[in-house]
UniProtKB/TrEMBL annotation:
Location(s), subcellular: Cell membrane
PTM-bearing positions, type 4-aspartylphosphate: 533
Record-listed E.C. numbers: 2.7.13.3
Response regulatory domain segment(s): 484-599
SUPFAM superfamilies from the UniProt entry: ATPase domain of HSP90 chaperone/DNA topoisomerase II/histidine kinase (SSF55874), CheY-like (SSF52172), Histidine-containing phosphotransfer domain, HPT domain (SSF47226), Homodimeric domain of signal transducing histidine kinase (SSF47384)
Alphabetized InterPro entries for the sequence: CheY-like_superfamily, HATPase_C_sf, HATPase_dom, His_kinase_dom, HisK_dim/P_dom, HisK_dim/P_sf, HPT_dom_sf, Sig_transdc_His_kin-like_C
Recorded superkingdom: Bacteria
Keywords assigned by UniProt, alphabetized: ATP-binding, Cell membrane, Membrane, Nucleotide-binding, Phosphoprotein, Transmembrane, Transmembrane helix, Two-component regulatory system
Enzyme class, broadest EC rank: transferase
Lineage, highest ranks first: Bacteria, Pseudomonadati, Bacteroidota, Chitinophagia, Chitinophagales
Originating species: Niabella yanshanensis
Protein name, per record: histidine kinase
Bilayer topology annotation: Multi-pass membrane protein
Database matches in PANTHER family: HYBRID SIGNAL TRANSDUCTION HISTIDINE KINASE J
Length: 731
């Protein structure tokens, strides 16, 4: 038995003993109180009886003395009435004495009562003889009274009764004294036990209090250690985010730039792998950071209006290439009663869909994915909608023993060395937390080899008005030619990347390496916009912006560009004095939009360069000199090449029309690249090749497809091919 148990049982035993002692003391207290009450009543009764006994003795002697000399008494009515009253009083007192006596004194009281009854009887006979003047009867009764000597008998018995009453009262007092002694003893024992108990309890309380204070101190130390650990964790995550995102920024950025150049099929494949791997690593970093925010309770849910139907369309486009590559079918359905515009967090909702749909595609090889949205209930008064979203696939399914754990951290369907799919195992954990933060819940139904169905709910508010997003086409054509932009970035790869991005918008930025150089330069020169990294050598971004705002009073917009994406970083940047915040890897479209917004404040509107789309801009050349210079005068080889070109074009033309109809920009890019490879042997100056190069980039702006331009593009190339190739190909 350990010390805690011994202390516990000791306290319990002491408490029980104290309770028992209190009960016994209470018992004797009640007994003593009752005895005291009885003794007091008996004492009062004894004093009363003593008084009455004294009165009986006095009355008996007085009455006997008067009646013995009654022979000389005249028949005076007043005197006779006085004697009669004495007789009556004597008889009454004797009766009372007999009635109130009890216990051992009752017999003596009855004896006195009997004697007095005899005296009363004789006395009444004497009084009657006096009234009737019956001398003979009077003399006879007086002699009898003298002979019986009743007065002395009453006196003796009364004296004996008084002694008996005194003895009985003494016994009662002795008993009370004994009870009082016992009560006093128990009270002393109780007091001693109480003092001991109080001391023990006080000792225990003091020890517990000391232990509690010690525990509080230990908890404070543990809390401080945990805070230090948390700060270290946050700092580690921030640094990790920065260190990972900085090279990712260059990796993804240059991948996108490289993807926009002329590449052959193999090169295109390699670039796609580089981009895909970069984005996968970015998703992993985001998952880790999102989980950190959730655990810290700092993940915020936005409350802004957005177009729910556009969100579904955008998500479909995001997965269209993957769906097509795997040969799957993707369908979505939205209940027409769901309002088009709602208020909520579109980014978090999209994050939920991306996680669930990515998993569905990852584990599905045949069939497809169905996404649907329905209504559970509507609060018309408050305009709240509880919606149900379902993502159903026909994939491998989830074993029963895994369903209960898939929402736990780092839990994955595949384990060990046989894993075929990547991932951190955090996606569904984040999804569950996001759904719960949006007022909903998530559930899953699945059978092995029959597919899975994830269902989640959330509460959204109907929006009265939503301003539709501005088309991204404009930002893609912005020209910043007349502006002065300063870039403060220490990473050489990012410097080159930004230089290439800005070159597409006619901007040659001034690039320097650290905050100190920025401060020195901005003391002397004026720029329209500054883009500044946070973590730099010599002087970091926060120190630099503090000097620029508080010492130089610089009003120029300064956008923070950093790989730090921990919670509170945006607020920290704004409070430090930055005008805005850009996270790395840099989203080119968002960067251009932000730059256009702040550069407009200078009073000069960023201009969009005119795209030369007219036929006059293209120097048509329909001859096959370039091709013949390569293959020589071999007509059969020439005809064979031209025949294959035409066959490939017929296939590409159909695919291009379909991709344009589906607004699949990625498919259009792939087809344009393939077309450049197909017709590259015609030479860079040939009309077909030049149209693909010059007009192909106008078919879409990255998200929206220009259907009329696609149709015109197909018709123009088709006409040229029919004109220049069909005549030379062998049938």
């Amino acid at each position: 038995m350990n010390k805690k148990n011994v202390a516990f049982f000791s306290v319990v035993t002491l408490a029980l003993a104290l309770m028992a002692l209190i009960v016994v003391t209470q018992f004797f207290t009640n007994k003593a109180t009752n005895a005291l009450t009885t003794g007091n009543l008996k004492a009062v009764s004894t004093f009363g009886l003593n008084n009455r006994i004294q009165e009986i003795v006095n009355t008996s002697f007085e009455l006997e003395s008067k009646l013995k000399g009654a022979t000389n008494l005249p028949a005076d009515k007043i005197r006779l009435q006085s004697l009669q009253d004495s007789v009556n009083t004597l008889g009454y007192n004797a009766y009372v004495l007999s009635s109130f006596s009890e216990g051992p004194t009752r017999a003596r009281a009855d004896s006195i009562n009997n004697i007095i009854d005899t005296q009363v009887t004789i006395s009444e006979k004497i009084l009657a003889a006096v009234k009737n003047s019956n001398t003979q009867q009077l003399k006879l009764n007086i002699d009898s009274l003298k002979k019986l000597d009743l007065g002395n008998k009453v006196y003796k018995n009364c004296m004996q009764l008084q002694r008996e009453l005194r003895d009985d009262l003494q016994r009662t007092l002795d008993t009370n004294t004994d009870q009082a002694s016992k009560l006093s003893l128990f009270n002393r024992v109780l007091a001693v036990f109480s003092i001991i108990a109080i001391l023990l309890l006080a000792t225990i309380i003091i020890r517990r209090q000391s232990q509690q204070l010690k525990l509080i101190e230990e908890l404070k130390e543990a809390e401080l250690a945990a805070l230090k650990s948390k700060n270290a964790k946050d700092e580690f995550l921030a640094n990790m985010s920065h260190e990972l995102r900085t090279p990712l920024n260059a990796l993804i950025g240059f991948g996108n730039l490289l993807d926009g150049t002329d590449l052959n099929v193999k090169q295109k494949e390699y670039v796609e792998i580089i981009k895909s791997s970069g984005y996968n690593l970015l998703y992993i970093v985001n998952d880790v950071l999102d989980l950190s925010k959730i655990e810290a309770g700092k993940l915020t849910i936005a409350h802004r209006p957005f177009n729910l139907y556009d969100l579904f369309t955008r998500i479909k486009k995001m997965f269209s290439a993957t769906i097509q590559d795997k040969g799957l079918v993707y369908n979505y359905f939205i209940d027409e009663q769901i309002p088009k515009h709602v208020v909520g967090d579109p980014d978090r909702l999209q994050q939920i869909f991306i996680n669930l749909i990515s998993n569905a595609i990852k584990f599905t090889t045949d069939g497809g994915i169905e996404v649907s949205a329905g209504i559970i209930w509507v609060d018309e008064e408050q305009k709240f909608y509880k919606l149900s979203f379902t993502i159903k696939d026909s994939g491998v399914g989830i074993p029963k023993d895994k369903i209960g754990t898939i929402f736990e951290r780092f839990e994955q369907l595949e384990q060990g060395a046989q894993r075929q799919h990547g991932g951190t195992g955090l996606g569904l954990t984040i999804v569950k937390n996001l759904v719960e933060r949006m007022g909903g819940s998530i559930s899953v139904y699945s059978h092995v080899n029959e597919g899975s169905e994830f269902n989640f709910t959330c509460i959204l508010e109907k929006a009265e008005r939503v301003e539709e997003a501005v088309s991204n086409e404009v930002s893609a054509t912005y020209s910043f030619e007349d502006y002065r932009v300063l870039v403060v970035e220490d990473n050489k790869a990012n410097q080159v990347l930004l230089k290439h991005i800005f070159s597409k918008h006619s901007l040659i930025p001034r690039i320097i390496d650290n905050g100190q150089e920025a401060v020195n330069l901005l003391r002397k020169e004026i720029f329209d916009l500054v883009l500044m990294d946070i973590q730099m050598p010599v002087m970091d971004g926060y120190t630099a912006i503090s000097i620029l705002r508080r010492e130089l009073y610089l009003k120029t917009p300064v956008i923070a560009m950093t790989a730090y994406v921990s919670e509170g970083e945006v607020q920290k940047c704004l409070e430090a004095g930055f005008s805005d915040y850009m996270a790395k890897p840099v989203d080119e479209e968002l960067l251009v939009q932000k730059m256009a917004f702040y550069l407009k404040q200078t009073g000069k509107e960023p201009s969009a360069p005119v795209q030369q789309e007219t036929d006059a801009a293209i120097d048509y050349n329909d001859n096959l000199d370039y091709l013949t210079s390569i293959i020589g005068d071999d007509k059969e080889v020439l005809a064979e090449i031209l025949k294959e070109m035409r066959a490939q074009w017929l296939k590409d033309k159909t695919d291009l029309a379909a991709a344009a109809g589906q607004e699949d920009t990625e498919a259009i890019n792939r087809l344009l690249h393939r077309m450049k490879s197909t017709f590259s042997s015609l030479g860079p100056d040939h009309s077909v090749y030049k149209i693909i190069i010059d007009k192909g980039r106008l078919l879409h702006n990255g998200q929206t497809v220009a259907a009329d331009k696609c149709n015109s593009f197909i018709d123009e190339i088709d006409s040229l091919i029919n004109k220049t190739l069909k005549e030379n190909a062998k049938s």
